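Table 4 source record.
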Amino acid sequence: DDFALALSGRDHNLQAMVDSTGACMVHMGTCFKMGKTPSDEQILALVDFVTRDKSGRICTINLPEVFSPAAAYKDVATGCLMLTCSDGFVMKEHLVLLWFNQEVQQKHTKPRETYWFTCEPTIPPLPWSETTKEAVKELAHGIAMHEARKNSTRADGVLEAMQTKDQFLANISHEIRTPLYAVNALSELCLVAPNVPQEVREHLQVINESGTSLLGLLNDIIDLRKLELGKMQLQLIDIDLIQFSRSCIHMYLQHITQKGIQAVLE
C-alpha cells in the first residue's frame, strides 16, 4: 500500500521502469529521488508549475523551453516526463511521478593541420517513446485506482463509525428523556400545590426550567441527525426575551450568589 516505499526500492524502483538518468516521486511535499535529479526545491517548483499551468503532466526533451528556471539544472534534467496520479475525486493527496534525462556530451579529438583541438558536441536526449508514455499512463492510472479503492474502504469505515455514534446519541437521548419527564412532571405538580413557601416555589421553578432546557438539548441532538439526512424543518416562533433572560438568571442564581455577584435585569 506504500507506493513511496515500493517504488523507491532497490530491485524495482521508479527509475528502472523507464529508460532515464533520474527519477523522482513527490508525495505530500516529500521527494523520493533516484539517480541524477535536480534538488528537492527545484523539483517542487517544477511540480507546482506543471500542476498549476500544464494540467499536471508534461513530456519534453527540452525542459527549459517549457519551464525557464529549469535552465539552471539542464545538465541533469534536459528531458522530463511528468504525470500526476489522481482519480479526480477520492484521492486527497496527489502522487506525482517524474523522470529526467540528461544531455549527452561526447568528446572528440581531431587533428587540425599542425595542432590538435578537442570538441565536445552536446547531444539532446532522445524523445520519450510512445511505449514509455503509455506505460507511465497505465502506472499512474493503476495507482489512482488503488488509492481510490483504499480511500473508499476507509470512508466506509468512517461512515459506519458515524452511524454508530448517531445511533448511540439517539439511544442515550431517549434514555435520559424518560427520567427527565418524571422530574418535570413532579416539579409542575409541586408548583400548583397550595401552601408552598415562596422560596421553595422559586427553587421548583428553577428545577422545572432546567429540566425543560435539558429536554430541548436532547431534542436538538436528534434534530442534528435529521439535519444530516436533509429532513430538518425550521420553525419561526415568538420568544419573550425578558422571560427568557429571567429564566437564565434563575438557573444560575445560586452560583452567582456564591461568587458575590449581583445579577440585575432591567
